[in-house]
Amino acid sequence: MATPDASTAARSARPGANVAAALEHTAAVRASAEAVIDGDVRFDYATLGRRIAGVGAGLLSLGLAPGDVVATLALNSYRHLECWLAIPRVGLVLNELNTRLAAAELAFILDDSEARICWIAGPVDQEPWATRVRSAGVPFVGVEVSIRRPDGTVADTDEVGEVWLRGPNIMAGYWRRPQETAAALTPDGWYRSGDAARSDADGYAPRSRMRSAHTPPCSRQQCSGFPTSAGSSGSTPQWCSARTAPRAKTSSPTTVGP
User: Domain residues of the chain, as ranges?
Assistant: First the structure.
């Protein structure tokens, strides 16, 4: 018997049999309790329940059916919360998109997931977020990040270079692979990531992949980080770059907003 995919499972599930059901219970027993605080926007559980029901009804009125995929592209906001609860409540499949991805990456995810609707909520097209869509954010406390030129010197602001990392959470080296370790780590502990990035004036670093020189050995079937025993002797790890070929595009998702 074939295993049902996510879409089939969603179609067979009863709408409302998910996290939204807990909200409905809370709205019934604590209707006047404050549920949402988002800047100047505040409302109780009863209001949240009504708003979620309205969002779900609106999506179904567009011709969607249980099991259809609805993507969201949103920052943290009450509108995002409403989508997060309303979409599964009516039996639709929620696909949350990462606002830091590039347009081409978002397009691939939308096509690969066969999203029928892309709901955009929040000011993702406004400053400063529009210029930080691909940002990896600012460095975590305790981790040093440096953008370096090919000769190892520090790159200027907005100059593209390689991301170097140093900190207590950086590996000491690859297990029993001194050559790979020497290629990836400098004598003073910097890890050369192979990622290209530039740092803006506020320290945000949009990035992309430069090369795969430091990709750990992995299976031909999946990049798990473990060496495979492929080969006649089984002694030579095989290197691979596992990528999923994009599907042929069949249709474009509809874009909606608040």
Answer: 13-131, 135-240
